[in-house]
Specification:
Number of strands: 10
CATH topology: TIM Barrel
Distance between the termini: 16 Å
Order of helices and strands: EHEHEHEHEHEHEHEEHEH
CATH superfamily: Copper homeostasis (CutC) domain
Strand order of the largest sheet: 3-2-1-8
Largest sheet: 4 strands, parallel
Structural class: alpha/beta
Helix content: 25-40%
Strand content: 15-25%
Number of helices: 9
CATH class: Alpha Beta
CATH architecture: Alpha-Beta Barrel
Shape: globular
C-alpha cells in the first residue's frame, strides 16, 4: 500500500514568522496580515519579499478586512486586483472565501476569482465554517474548481468539529482536498489524522516574543502592541511534523 504523503501548512503574519515556518519545515505557507483578526491580505511588499526569499509553496490570503465574508461591489474589486497581483508575483495559489447574506456560498463571484487566479490553486478558507449547509457547499466548491477547503467542521476548534471534517473528507472522495485547521497542535494532530483520514493540515502556532527595543517608553511599558512581536518557533513546526512523518 502506498504510504500517505502529509502536508503541513502554516499561517504566518509577516516576513519573519514566514522565515521561521520555512526553517521549521513548513510545506506550504498561508501568508497573512493581522492573524488576530483571522488574517487579512498581506502587503505587496510582504508578498514580493516572501516570494523572492522562499521556494516553499506560497498562498496569500485574499481578504480586504476582518469581520464577516459578505463583500460589497467595491470590496470584490479589491479581491480581484489582489488575486491578479499574486499571480503577477508568482505565488502558487490564493486563499479566498465569500458568502451571501443567507449563508450560502457566493458562487458567482467565487467562480470569478477562481477563473482569475487560474492556473494558481485556490483554497476556500473558513468562511466555509460559517455557511448554512456545508455538504451543499462542498459540492458547489468542487463544481467551480476550488483546490481545497480549510475547515474546522463548523466549530471554533477542529477538535470539536472532527466528526464533520471526517464526513466531509469521506464525501469529497479525493475530488477536493479537505484541510483541517483551527486548533491543530502537536498534541492532537495524530488523532486528527486517524479520525479524519485527511492528509493536509493547517496550523498557525502563533506566539509572541519581546521586542528588541532598548528604549521602552514608560507610558507604554505595559503595551503588548508596542513591545511584543508575532513569533513562530521553527522547532514548533518541526515538532508538529514529527508527529505524522
Amino acid at each position: 500500500m502506498e504510504e500517505k504523503k502529509y502536508i503541513i501548512e502554516i499561517a504566518t503574519s509577516d516576513f519573519t514568522t514566514t522565515q521561521s515556518a520555512v526553517e521549521g519545515g513548513a510545506d506550504r505557507i498561508e501568508l497573512c496580515a493581522n492573524l488576530a483578526e483571522g488574517g487579512t491580505t498581506p502587503s505587496f511588499g510582504t508578498i514580493k519579499q516572501c516570494r523572492e526569499a522562499f521556494t516553499v509553496s506560497l498562498y496569500p490570503i485574499i481578504r480586504p478586512r476582518g469581520g464577516d465574508f459578505l463583500y460589497s461591489k467595491d470590496e470584490f474589486e479589491i479581491l480581484l486586483q489582489d488575486v491578479k497581483l499574486c499571480k503577477q508575483l508568482g505565488c502558487d495559489g490564493v486563499v479566498i472565501g465569500l458568502l451571501n447574506m443567507d449563508g450560502t456560498i457566493d458562487l458567482v463571484r467565487t467562480a470569478q476569482l477562481v477563473e482569475t487566479a487560474y492556473p494558481l490553486g485556490v483554497t476556500f478558507h473558513r468562511a466555509f465554517d460559517r455557511c448554512k449547509d456545508p455538504f451543499v457547499a462542498l459540492e458547489e466548491l468542487i463544481e467551480i474548481g476550488c483546490e481545497r477547503i480549510l475547515t474546522s467542521g463548523q466549530q471554533p476548534s477542529v477538535v470539536d468539529g472532527v466528526d464533520m471534517v471526517a464526513d466531509l473528507n469521506k464525501i469529497a472522495a479525493d475530488r477536493i482536498i479537505i484541510m483541517p485547521g483551527s486548533g491543530v497542535r502537536k498534541e492532537n494532530i495524530k488523532m486528527l489524522v486517524e479520525k479524519t483520514g485527511c492528509t493536509e493540515f493547517h496550523s498557525s502556532l502563533r506566539g509572541k516574543t519581546a521586542s528588541k527595543m532598548s528604549f521602552i517608553h514608560p507610558s507604554f511599558k505595559d503595551s503588548a502592541e508596542s513591545y511584543m512581536n508575532n513569533f513562530i518557533s521553527p522547532e514548533s513546526v518541526s515538532e508538529l511534523k514529527k508527529q505524522i512523518f
